[in-house]
Write a structure and sequence with these properties.
28% of the residues lie in helices and 25% in strands. An eight-stranded antiparallel beta sheet has the order 14-11-13-12-16-17-15-18. It has twelve helices and 18 strands.
């Protein structure tokens, strides 16, 4: 084992499998790397950079599916699909890679209407820690009986294996869009998010940005006439809103270090409790995300957000009492997950899966 980290850049699934077999023979820990957004502080003996796995392998426009390598950026994918009037309705930042999006479970504003990566995945190819290639779902040769690999690997953060390809179902690009924004106080913002998300006006996204104040954003998509009429009615629902054909600057933007990035998921009915906890905590942070779909991203200031050794609990440090309070607010059907730093101690189910896929626990680094 070497004290210096080696980096491999496979150009195919076969190359990746060979690299992981060699790592297994040498008992090296392995960390997959995509766009390198700065969230992860994990280290390992071998870094597997997916930058050369950057192609849309197949775009079957008539079947509304695309098979894409893990290192392809969402910007490249969008460009290829747009030529046929189609899109992958997972609007994460353009520099994010497909594999990184799946592994972190990232979801942008369109989560409200189209769901998360696991909801649009119909097939996936992965390389296990021992170098064995496994497939699940459509457009594959070999399937792994008993496992839906797409759902297992979504949000696994590289701890089960390396994603090399994914197949998604696609959606059409909208003919017209309208973005509505309203600056409100906290109670009014909560009411607006809930009303918009549950509205028959069929919003594609309901976002919330909170800093010094609260801004609610709503995206409507469809035909030009239909969007115009729905935008008028949505503005009435929000009480007071500005309408534009382009998103506000903060739309869909993910928080970035320095500091700690935390993802909170919750039932929409608990949004008020979540925001109350944040407001009363005294912890300096910015809040953005698809609140209408029950998700927010928190970025804690560098001073509040840097845990000291031993502070991690289930992957997230205390942050002045904010994290335990958030856990209590979201209840059993929500979650509070730190996206910066190494993954915390896995659940019993995740431990069992790691034992199955990576008995040596070499994937994901430390």
């Amino acid at each position: 084992m070497t004290s210096e980290r080696a980096v491999v850049r496979p150009a195919s699934t076969a190359d990746a499998a060979a690299a992981l077999r060699d790592a297994a023979d040498r008992d090296l820990t392995v960390v997959p790397r995509g766009a390198g957004l700065g969230w992860s502080t994990r280290t390992g003996d071998l870094i597997v950079d997916t930058g050369k796995l950057d192609q849309v392998i197949e775009h079957a426009a008539g079947d509304w599916i695309a098979r894409i390598q893990a290192g392809a950026t969402m910007a490249h994918v969008a460009e290829v699909l747009a030529a046929a009037g189609q899109r992958l309705a997972l609007d994460v930042p353009p520099e994010v890679t497909v594999g990184g999006m799946i592994a972190t479970g990232l979801a942008g504003p369109l989560r409200l209407r189209y769901g998360s990566p696991r909801d649009l995945l119909i097939g996936i190819t992965v390389v296990r820690a021992d170098g064995v290639v496994a497939h699940s779902g459509g457009k594959v040769v070999k399937n792994v009986a008993g496992y839906d690999l797409g759902r297992l690997f979504a949000g696994s953060r590289g701890t089960l294996g390396l994603i090399t390809e994914a197949t998604f179902r696609l959606h059409p690009l909208p003919q017209a869009v309208a973005y509505l924004t309203a600056d409100l106080d906290r109670p009014a913002a909560v009411a607006a998010v809930i009303a918009a998300a549950n509205s028959p006006l069929q919003p594609s996204a309901v976002e919330l940005a909170a800093g010094a104040g609260y801004t609610v954003g709503v995206l409507l998509e469809g035909t030009a006439d239909g969007v115009a009429e729905r935008a008028r009615r949505m503005a009435e629902l929000l009480g007071s809103a500005k309408t534009a054909d382009a998103p506000p600057p903060w739309w869909g933007r993910l928080p970035a270090p320095p500091g700690t990035v935390i993802r909170v998921t919750f039932w929409l009915a608990r949004l008020a409790e979540v925001l109350d906890v944040i407001a009363k905590s005294g912890v300096e942070c910015t809040v953005t995300g698809p609140a209408g779909a029950g998700m927010l991203y928190l970025c804690l200031g560098a001073e509040a957000g840097q845990p000291e050794a031993g502070q991690h609990e289930a992957g997230v440090h205390d942050a002045g009492g904010l994290v335990p309070a958030l856990r209590a607010a979201v209840g059993d059907r929500g979650s509070v997950v730190e996206l910066t730093g190494p993954p915390g101690p896995p659940s019993a189910l995740m431990s069992a899966l790691r034992d199955q896929f990576d008995p040596g626990h070499r994937m994901g680094g430390a």
